[in-house]
Write a structure and sequence with these properties.
The chain is an alpha+beta fold and about 240 residues long. It has one domain: Beta Polymerase, domain 2 (2-Layer Sandwich), CATH 3.30.460.10. About 50% of the residues lie in helices and about 20% in strands. The protein has 6 helices and 6 strands. Helix 5 packs antiparallel against helix 6. The longest helix has about 40 residues. The N terminus is likely disordered. The structure holds guanosine-5'-triphosphate (GTP) and magnesium ion. The site of guanosine-5'-triphosphate (GTP) has 10 residues, from helix 5. The site of magnesium ion has 2 residues, from loops.
Length: about 240
């Protein structure tokens, strides 16, 4: 048995705007099912927001900034592993309070400029609260990892209350994603003890990813300029 508070950042209010009592005493299984429902709903909401932005871009600018979107719920095993890493007991309260990425969504864009555009448009939506931003594109990790991370909350409207629910968003280019997935696999294979020469090679590849992203962006801008010039001539 446990009392569930949706943490300081998972504030609950009733649909009329008044404060609600925190979750009442209930059994762990019901609580777990209810929690995963809320996190799954948050993934749906954020996914739809990105799809709408992408569709609007297609209509207005005739191009899609988003290549694809992947959403996932963290497995109970990974949640327990993370709590252990933080030195916290495996309880539902701790999971809600300390694990930011139970609901995770990854947005893969064509160009670096799209990443900032998409992130800003989402942040400006009135129901979204940005809790944290980590710009590993301006400041890559020592591993060479590049990506734009945001932790946000989105309100989930249940029958009798609204639950602000946390979602981790990672936005990156196709090339950054290619690098990150290989690096992740390599780290997994070596259980973190990657030989120095492989680590160095990964860092070198990360520089090539940045170079590729920069050149593809310039190329795209050049083509768009030519397109615009062509249209002006027609008019
Ligand atoms: P975590 O405890 O891993 O969540 O770290 P954190 O809370 O400091 O968050 P951070 O924003 O640094 O990283 C969150 C997620 O980004 C990770 O779970 C990975 O999915 C991804 N990530 C961060 N660093 C790397 C990296 O060096 N390589 C790869 N492949 N992914 C990374
Ligand atoms: Mg994290």
């Amino acid at each position: 048995m446990c009392y569930i508070y949706f943490g300081a950042l998972h504030h609950t209010t009733d649909n009329s705007g008044g404060e609600m009592e925190p979750y009442s005493e209930t059994n762990q299984v019901d609580t777990w099912n209810e929690l995963t429902l809320v996190y799954r709903s948050a993934l749906k909401e954020i996914n739809t927001k990105f799809e709408i932005l992408n569709d609007e871009f297609q209509q207005v600018h005739q191009y899609n900034p988003i290549e694809h979107i992947k959403a996932r719920l963290k497995t109970p095993e990974s949640i327990v592993k993370k709590l252990k890493k933080y030195g916290k007991e495996s309880t539902i309260e701790n999971m809600v309070a300390y694990v930011n990425d139970i609901a995770g969504i990854r947005v893969i864009c064509s160009f670096t400029s799209d990443i900032y555009r998409i992130a800003e448009m989402l942040s400006n939506q009135s129901d979204i609260k940005v809790i944290e931003v980590k710009d590993y594109i301006s400041n890559p990790k020592p591993s060479g990892y590049k990506s734009y991370h945001m932790i946000v909350t989105v309100p989930i409207f249940l029958s009798d209350r609204i639950v602000d629910t946390m979602v981790e968003i990672q936005i990156r280019t196709v090339a950054m994603d290619f690098w990150a997935s290989l690096e992740h696999k390599i780290n997994y294979k070596f259980e973190g003890n990657v030989p120095d020469y492989i680590r160095d090679e990964l860092i070198a590849c990360a520089s090539m990813v940045s170079l590729l992203d920069d050149r593809m962006l310039s190329l795209n801008e050049e083509v768009r300029k030519l397109e615009a010039a062509g249209k002006n001539k027609e008019e």
